[in-house]
Design a protein that fits this description.
- By secondary structure, the chain is an all-alpha fold.
- The protein has 20 helices and no strands.
- The protein has a single domain, classed as Sodium:dicarboxylate symporter (Proton glutamate symport protein, Orthogonal Bundle), CATH 1.10.3860.
- The longest helix has about 35 residues.
- The radius of gyration is 22 Å and the shape is globular.
- It is found in: Cell membrane.
Length: about 425
């Protein structure tokens, strides 16, 4: 009876059921505007609930973590190592994407006229109105108004202010303890709120996927099935091999990470939203043996600077579009593509619909027709689901890797947590 209860109530299973039901409803009522009318508000409410809890958790956790470090030199070293790690892994992700596209040629044999039904106009408008340079990104890290950054949900300036505020709290000693206790209280309370919000995840997933399938239909996947398979295959390879090697070097296993994060992986996949799992992966990585100061800094920062899945997707899609137009990308041109993606992915950090924006900027720079982005609009949601999973796993592992690099990873605590997960089956 006890096992039956766990089986029935497991969050992962509930989310999968919500996903299947959403696909079924969307497929049955394909093209029916009533699905969007009734389900989209439900999905939006769920996403709003997630966004509501992210900022308070990031701010309070960072203040507590940074105040615990209390040394600006140590924090600077941590930041330097984090950026080096992010750049290295992101570069490898781009190379894996280019390798997959060169080997499997997902754009070869695709009927370009069959795909020419989607307008590029909306994506062009997004690109022109949301253009950011790399310099703009670094300038905007420093907020002119912290409360404006809070209201817009822009993580980078929030992280910057939280770090400075945490250092300030640490510097005033005993006077800062009430502030530290207050922030710790906020963090604890918000993690409780997170657990309550996660109970609504299956309903949110049902609504979000139902609307998507009703809009585009399952049939829209068929002409681009080769691109979907290539992208998914490259992302699975990246997680199991590249991140697997990183996990091994960090003293753990990628399969242990997946086991711990199974609920978050399913939720991230079905919602295509990294934000939906940010609070939980911070909490779980801390339980897994990473210091609070590292998890609260590395993981939120990674949401802007360590988008492995997004850059991998962009490299594959750029070559896919070149292939359907019959454009040959030479080796030097592909090296240029790597450099452009590395810069553009940072310059567009925090922009809504950033993957399309970065892709447009990249295509224009390397001489590929930007109109080609319209060809993948119908399946972008399917690809977005996969790249979100890679982003989540990559940023979770980054916390472990940086903790190991700093000599702060508690392997004993991590092993105890793994054993607890194995024995209980699911950790709240």
């Amino acid at each position: 009876m006890k096992k039956l209860k766990k089986f029935r109530c497991g969050l992962a299973l509930q989310i999968v059921i919500g996903l299947v039901l959403g696909i079924t409803v969307g497929a049955i009522f394909y093209g029916n505007p009533a699905v969007e009318t009734y389900l989209e508000p439900i999905g939006q409410i769920f996403l709003n609930l997630i966004k509501m809890i992210v900022i308070p958790i990031v701010f309070s956790s960072l203040v507590v973590g940074v105040a615990g470090v209390g040394d600006i030199k140590k924090l600077g070293r941590l930041g330097g190592k984090t950026i080096i790690y992010f750049e290295l892994i992101t570069t490898i992700a781009i190379i894996v994407g280019l390798g997959a596209a060169n080997i499997f040629h997902p754009g070869s044999g695709v009927n370009i006229h069959e795909l020419s039904k989607v307008s590029i106009k909306s994506y062009m408008n997004t690109a022109t109105s949301s253009h950011h340079s790399l310099a703009d990104t670094f300038v905007n890290i420093v907020p002119s108004n912290f409360f404006e950054a809070l209201s817009t949900g822009n993580l980078l300036p929030i992280i910057f202010f939280s770090v400075m505020f945490g250092l300030g709290v640490a510097s005033i000693g005993e006077k800062g303890k009430p502030v530290l206790n207050f922030c710790q209280g906020i963090a604890d309370a918000m993690f409780w709120v997170t657990n309550q919000v996660m109970r609504t995840a299956p309903i949110g997933v049902f609504a979000l996927i139902g609307v998507t399938i009703s809009k585009f239909g399952i049939a829209s996947l068929i002409p681009l099935i080769k691109l979907i398979i290539t992208t998914y295959g490259a992302m699975i390879f990246f997680i199991l091999v590249v991140l697997g090697i990183v996990a091994k070097l960090a003293g753990t296993s990628i399969f242990k990470m997946i086991r711990i994060l199974k609920d978050e992986i399913i939720l991230a996949y079905t919602t295509a939203s990294s934000e939906s799992v940010l609070p939980k992966i911070m909490e779980k990585m801390e339980k897994f043996g990473c210091p609070k100061a590292i998890t609260s800094f590395v993981i939120p920062t990674g949401y802007s600077f360590n988008l492995d899945g997004s850059t991998l997707y962009q490299s594959i899609t750029a070559l896919f579009i070149a292939q359907i137009y019959g454009i040959h990308m030479s080796f030097p041109a592909q090296i240029n593509l790597v450099i452009v993606l590395l810069v553009a992915s940072k310059g567009m950090a925090g922009v809504p619909g950033a993957s399309f924006v970065v892709l447009l900027a990249t295509l224009g720079t390397v001489g590929i027709p930007m109109e080609g982005v319209a060809f993948i609009a119908g399946i972008d949601r399917v690809l977005d689901m996969a790249r979100t999973v890679v982003n989540v796993v990559g940023n979770s592992l980054a916390a472990v890797a940086i903790s190991k690099w700093e000599g702060k990873y508690n392997s004993v605590k991590g092993q105890e947590y793994i054993e607890n997960v194995n024995s209980v089956g699911e950790i709240a």
